[in-house]
Specification:
The protein has helices at about 5, 15-20, 50-65, 80, 90-110, 120-135, 160-170, 175-185, 195-210, 225-240, 245-250, 255-265, 270-280, 290-295, 315-320, 320-330, 350-355, 415-420, 450-455, 515-525, 535-545, and strands spanning about 35-40, 65-70, 110-115, 135-140, 150, 155, 380, 385-390, 400-410, 430-435, 465, 480-485, 500-505, 510-515. The protein is an alpha/beta fold.
Length: about 550
């Protein structure tokens, strides 16, 4: 066992002495040592109950013949950090989480790993760290929260609350209506109930085979979820005793392919592109952004979940057959899903989904009746995004898939919020928010506040928005993010002026500004990127080392 290096031989007597201080007995030194990476934190709704999950996991590991060692990672709640400078820390937290997993697991030479994530950047951070360690690994997330409901029965969620701010600003709803939404949108513990980033990533863990079926859809704090936690804990002991498979045996090129296929089928958050590119790099999988469009042409969008369809939430997907039913249906279209890919349960993906079926075709459509014959995400290219930009095409009003309008430029998210609320944006405009990329932000803020304002003010089907920042999974509409190169590294988005005509064509994968190469070069010759004052030492280091969104916003390891 890998842990023998800290527990075998006479020279390890001091090490064993320290381990005995934690409660270990003679018989424990023959058992596998298993790391339990728990992301429990009080302030995040998807995490405040994870201490109990950790207790259940440790108990089940002991019963199965392993020795658990629980440790914690940090976590940032994107919703609470939204709309102020706290959001600068969200994406960088992914790197801290990855580093912490690598640090604890490798410093103590633990034999296997079970990860308990749920929200925001925590899932990909844990996946990235686990790939560096490369031991047997299982993911079991906290699970999604229930949808909220208004008194009249209308389902609502966090996206409703953000959009209600814009509606209230326009006088469309009263103080009392806003208060009801505030109180009812997030009714329980769990990751926010739509196909936002957390649930998108927990779903993709199923597709990659590193989690059990139901990981992305079974509600948090239910007996079904707790039984999944127990099952995962028992399985990780089996894998540890067998000394495999390791996570890199499962999360390989086939797994990355399958993750993007499911992402397309379910119209996941645009953040999944950012995180899956980073995960691919950690897994040493060569995956070019252009392949996403190739997959999109082959994968029908057969499920729409909030924010793309406000009446459907993760609990509805679970009742309708779950992610397995989505994968089974998509597999009927051809060989786009790699069914021979292995999973943590020891079966292939094809074996896992062979008996799955759609139980409600109003929620999960068939491939003969898709929402769209192409996938729910699209990568756009052009003189405004030479290395690519990302849009959740599943969340766009059909007539906005092709759009042209004058730019209204803002050099920060706060400036954009003030401008939108101040009436600077009109129907037909293209809002440009720049210097918010990984390097320029720094930290690549999510733009849920401005997009929700646009929706709430009734401009969602009349205005497009582009940014070198990113969007919350709760964002919908013609919102194009991850524009690369970003403004801070000399990207064309930094050269734009108010009134420049910007063209968007989702189906043709185009994002461009109607300016000649000569005009762009002339502007570039007179221009230099704006530099922000960065008071935070951590964010300053991050800005110096981070790559752009097209490369997953990963930190450079060589200068």
């Amino acid at each position: 066992m890998r842990s023998d290096i800290i527990k075998r031989g006479f020279e390890r007597a001091p090490h064993r002495s320290l381990l005995r201080a934690t409660g270990l007995k003679d018989e424990d030194f023959d058992k596998p040592f298993i790391g339990v990476a728990n992301s429990y934190i009080d302030i995040i709704p998807g995490h405040f109950f994870l201490q109990e999950y950790g207790r259940i996991v440790k108990e089940a590991i002991r019963e199965a013949g392993g020795v658990p060692f629980e440790f914690n990672t940090i976590g940032v709640d994107d919703g609470i950090a939204m709309g102020h400078d706290g959001m600068l820390y969200s994406l960088p937290s992914r790197e801290i989480i990855a580093d912490s997993i690598e640090t604890v697991m490798n410093a103590h030479k633990l034999d296997a790993l079970i990860c308990i994530p749920n929200c925001d950047k925590i899932v990909p951070g844990m996946v990235m760290g686990a790939l560096r360690v490369n031991v047997p690994t299982i993911f079991v997330s906290g699970g999604p929260m229930k949808a909220g409901h208004l008194k009249d029965g209308t389902p609502i969620d966090l996206a409703t609350a953000f959009e209600a701010v814009g509606e209230h600003a326009e006088g469309k709803i009263t103080d009392e209506q806003l208060y009801e939404i505030e109180c009812e949108a997030c009714p329980s513990g769990g990751s926010c109930s739509g196909m936002f980033t957390a649930n998108s990533m927990n779903t993709l863990c199923e597709a990659m085979g590193i989690a059990l079926p139901g990981n992305g859809t079974v509600l948090a704090m239910t007996e079904e979820r707790l039984e999944m936690v127990r099952t995962a804990a028992k399985r990780i002991v089996e894998m540890a005793k067998a000394e495999g498979p390791n996570i890199r045996d499962i999360l390989n090129e086939d797994a990355v392919n399958n993750a993007f296929v499911v992402d397309m089928a379910m119209g996941g958050s645009t953040n999944t592109v950012l995180h899956m590119m980073a995960i691919a790099k950690e897994a040493e999988v060569d995956f070019d952004l252009k392949r996403i469009n190739e997959l999109s042409d082959k994968v029908a969008n057969i499920a729409k979940i909030s924010p793309s369809l406000t009446t459907v939430h993760m609990e509805d997907i679970n009742t309708a057959g779950g992610v397995n039913a989505v994968m089974k249906e998509i597999s009927k279209r051809g060989d786009v899903l790699r069914l021979d890919a292995m999973t943590v349960t020891g079966e292939t993906l094809g074996e896992r989904i062979q008996d799955a079926e759609i139980k409600d075709t109003n929620i999960i459509h068939t491939i003969d009746n898709p929402y769209s014959k192409v996938g729910g995400l699209s990568i756009l290219y052009g003189n405004l995004a030479e290395e690519g930009a990302v849009v959740k095409s599943a969340g766009i009003d059909p007539h906005m898939r092709k759009f042209k309008g004058p730019a209204v430029c803002f050099d920060s998210q706060p400036e954009a919020i003030a401008g939108i609320m101040g009436g600077k944006v009109k129907a037909g405009d293209v809002v440009v928010i720049r210097y918010e990329g990984p390097k320029g932000g720094p930290g690549m803020q999510e733009m849920l506040a401005p997009t929700s304002l646009i929706m709430g003010m009734g401009l969602g089907d009349k205005v497009a928005l582009i940014t070198d920042g990113r969007f919350s999974g709760a964002t919908r509409g013609a919102s194009i993010g991850h524009v690369s190169p970003e403004a801070a590294e000399g990207g064309t988005i930094g050269l734009l002026k108010d009134g420049d005509i910007i063209e968007l064509d989702v189906d043709a994968h185009i994002l461009r500004v109607d300016l000649s190469d000569e005009e762009l070069e002339a502007r570039r010759a007179r221009w230099s990127p704006k530099k922000k004052q960065i008071p935070s030492k951590w964010l300053k280091r991050y800005s110096l080392l981070v790559s752009n969104a097209a490369n997953g916003a990963v930190l450079k390891t060589e200068l």
